[in-house]
Specification:
Elements (H helix, E strand, L loop, with lengths): L3 H12 L3 H4 L4 H22 L5 H18 L2 H12 L11 E4 L1 H5 L2 H5 L2 H7 L3 E4 L3 E2 L13 E5 L6 H13 L3 E6 L3 E3 L3 H7 L3 H4 L4 E2 L3 H7 L14 E4 L4 E4 L6 E3 L5 H16 L4 E4 L17 H17 L4 E4 L5 H4 L15 E3 L1 H13 L3 H8 L9 E5 L12 H6 L4 H12 L11 E3 L9 E3 L2 H4 L2 H7 L2 H20 L3 E5 L32 H5 L7 H17 L10 E4 L6 E7 L7 E7 L5 E4 L13 E4 L5 E3 L4 E4 L4 E5 L1
Parallel strand pairs: 1-2, 1-17, 2-5, 5-11, 11-12, 12-13, 13-14, 14-17
Antiparallel strand pairs: 3-4, 6-10, 7-9, 8-9, 15-16, 18-19, 19-20, 20-25, 21-24, 22-23, 22-25
Helix pairs in contact: 3-4, 3-14, 4-13, 4-14, 13-14, 16-17, 21-22, 22-24
The protein binds alpha-D-glucopyranose.
């Protein structure tokens, strides 16, 4: 959009550039900057327009972007142009993700390179390496308390070894996702150290207070993220003699985005990693980016403006790079991280589908899809050029962030139902075979989240201990049922390392003084490569899971209807155990896949008379894409085995 004020400012900025910059051929950059500048200027002035140094900060922002564009290597610039032309590239069903901790999975970056064949064997082509940046030992929050945003944790490797790995991945056509922890730094970060030493400039990078007056006001409305290990949202720093905001652990200092210098620093870091070849950047804890007294300090309007600004700036420098929003918040809030009132994603192109994840676990516990059906129906459609990251487990806990109203509509009392889920997954409920652990239990509110590996939560740990073939079978089926949904629902499926082999909980974290208070470590084990080798041995648990998953991934990639274009239709059925939807090919709308999932241990019937999609009843059988078998229909009734699922070609 052409608008005089912003464009005359842009002219001033460009005229003031140093001659060595003016000499460069920056045509692509200038076109993109021109296209986005009105938005960049509006957002920046909305956030920082009251400041006397506003214009100087705008100059700094643009200069930094130009510097990063100049540093961007030609092969990445080429990729940017390719992706601009094929802007829906990431909606294709070809992508299957995998999240891993480098050290636990493979020792170090060099080791990881030698394990890529394992991922490729499974069909993975997008890896998320969990944070590998320099963190203080023991005070790292699994890599999310960063001491230096541009240095790799020495035990994992160096910047050169990461570059080498990324080159290797590119040759294999695999994408790489890296984290940028935008909300906070370690208390040992250089900025925090300077703040501690009394440097006012860096105290302004954080939320620092002399006394409890303001912190107490914030506390009136701020919930606690880690109530057991880090109660409250502020920490007294002895050396600085001040209170500092620490929403997560007391060693993670929240960054103050009311200061434009913080925004510019963090964008610079995002672009630094984009220029190291990250295809996707996972922006951690984005819901927390803006703090306001009298609010929960989550999902604030300004947090969205910051993300929009980050996206607009990143599009000018590195348009091929996507953002993932890690916003594990209420369903109606998550969707906003794509950007509201837009067609293309304005903030992040990808968001964790925490709603689906939690609903799937609820269906496992109740053996019914009632809440799942309600919850998914009430989830607004995503934007056209945006997609979900569909996952079952990740490195974090499972929170029960459903909408209370949906819980009531499903016929449950919200508080009692959440308590049931905690009891179920911690194995306290008499009907439960799950072996999870409570996480973040809040004695005041009674809330708790759940830690535990996919296999242990699905009952495999218990079943193996009992040596009960029937239970082992049921837990493997549950695991595959969940994968079937994340593979077919629409979005990028994200597997968590270990889950393709049925990895159980690992309690060795209890021997580590730094980890023992954080039960999330129970599902962050060292990869057991001997067990991984069993994946090729027929009949082993590892083989039963891995082989089925590998096949599922291969088939997913070949189904055009699984591309993510809001091409899903959910069906009401009168069978409470079933979750049924169809996916249609947007190019050839005649080509449909009917996905039928049964959460009950017993066989269930789907009455096709209730499925209002063209001509189903004319058929006496359908082909299941997964098994290749013809599934017969008896008088309009389709029978699905206990914990079974079909991908039926219509
Ligand atoms: C994100 C991470 C989580 C971490 C938190 C604080 O939610 O996924 O592991 O504890 O941010 O950095």
């Amino acid at each position: 959009m052409y608008e005089q004020v912003s464009h005359s400012l842009l002219n001033d900025i460009l005229i003031a550039l140093k001659p060595e910059i003016k000499k460069q051929n920056l045509q692509h950059f200038y076109i993109r900057l021109g296209a986005n500048f009105y938005a960049i200027h509006s957002l920046f002035s909305r956030l920082y327009g009251d400041r006397p140094d506003f214009k100087a900060q705008m100059h700094r922002l643009v200069e930094m972007m130009i510097r990063q564009y100049i540093a961007r290597e030609p092969h990445l610039k080429k990729l940017d142009i390719k992706r601009e032309k094929d802007h829906n590239w990431f909606l294709s069903p070809e992508w299957v993700g995998f999240a891993l901790y480098c050290q636990e999975f493979a020792g170090d970056l060099e080791g990881l390179k030698s394990k890529l064949f394992y991922l490729q064997d499974l069909g993975i082509n997008m890896i998320h390496i969990m944070p590998i940046l320099d963190c203080p030992k023991g005070k790292s929050d699994g890599g999310y308390a960063v001491r230096d945003f541009r240095k790799i944790y020495p035990a994992v490797g160096t910047l050169e070894s990461l570059d080498d790995l990324i080159n290797n991945l590119k040759k294999r056509d695999m994408l790489i996702t890296l984290d940028v922890v935008v909300n906070h730094t370690s208390d040992e970060h250089e900025w925090a150290q300077k703040a501690r030493q009394g440097d006012k400039k860096y105290q302004d990078y954080y939320f620092v207070f002399d006394d409890r007056e303001t912190p107490d006001m914030y506390e009136e409305t701020m919930p606690e993220v880690f109530p057991e290990t880090a109660p409250g949202n502020f920490t007294w720093d002895e050396e600085m003699g001040k209170w500092v905001m620490t929403v997560f652990n007391n060693f993670q200092w929240d960054l103050n985005y009311k200061n434009p210098a913080v925004f510019i620093e963090m964008l610079d870091i995002i672009l630094f990693w984009a220029n190291h070849g990250a295809d996707i950047i996972r922006l951690d804890a984005v819901a927390f980016l803006w703090k306001k007294i009298g609010s929960t300090c989550q999902n604030e309007r300004e947090a969205h403006l910051i993300l929009q600004l980050m996206k607009d700036c990143c599009q000018a420098v590195a348009p091929g790079v996507l953002f993932i929003a890690e916003a594990i918040v209420a369903p109606v809030e998550i969707i906003k991280y794509f950007g509201e009132d837009a067609i293309n994603a304005k903030e992040c192109e990808i968001a964790y589908n925490a709603t689906l994840m939690a609903l799937l676990w609820e269906a496992v516990a109740t053996k019914k899809a009632t809440l799942l059906n309600k919850g998914i129906r009430n989830l607004p459609n995503k934007l056209e050029q945006a997609t979900w990251l569909n996952y079952i487990r990740c490195h974090d806990d499972i929170g029960w962030g459903f909408d209370d109203n949906d819980i009531r509509l499903a016929g449950y009392d919200p508080q009692a139902h959440r308590k049931f889920l905690v009891d179920y997954f911690t194995g306290e409920h008499p009907d439960s075979i799950a072996r999870g652990l409570a996480f973040g239990r809040n004695e005041r509110t009674g809330d708790a989240r759940i830690s535990g590996s996919l296999a242990s939560l699905a009952g495999l740990e218990n079943a193996l201990a009992l040596d009960n073939a029937e239970l082992i079978d049921a837990s493997i089926k549950t695991i595959l049922l969940l994968h079937s949904i994340t593979m077919s629902f629409g979005g990028i499926p994200l597997l968590y390392y270990g889950d393709a082999l049925g990895t159980l909980n690992d309690v060795s974290y209890l021997e580590d003084e730094y980890k023992l208070n954080d039960s999330r470590w129970v599902h962050r084990p060292n990869m057991n490569w001997e067990k991984a080798a069993l994946r090729t041995q027929t009949g082993t648990v590892e083989n039963r899971i891995f082989a089925a998953l590998k096949k599922m991934i291969a088939i997913r990639k070949e189904i055009p209807a699984f591309a993510d274009h809001n091409n899903r239709e959910l069906f009401d059925t009168d069978n409470l155990h079933l979750f049924v939807f169809s996916r249609f090919d947007t190019i050839n709308s005649q080509s449909r896949i009917l996905v039928v999932n049964n959460f009950d241990n017993n066989a269930q019937t789907l009455d096709l008379n209730n499925i209002k999609t063209g001509g189903l009843l004319q058929h006496t059988s359908f082909k299941d894409m997964l098994s290749g078998e013809m599934i017969s229909i008896q008088e309009g009734q389709l029978t699905i085995p206990g914990l079974g699922f079909y991908w039926l070609q219509i």
